[in-house]
Amino acid sequence: MQFSDQMIKKRGIAMSLKDAALSVRENAYAPYSNFKVGAALRTSTGQIFSGCNVENVAYPEGTCAEAGAIAAMVAAGEQELTEVYVVASSPQPVPPCGGCRQKLAEFGKRDVKVTLATVDGAEFETTIGDLLPGAFDASHMEDV
Question: What are the catalytic residues?
Answer without folding.
Answer: 66
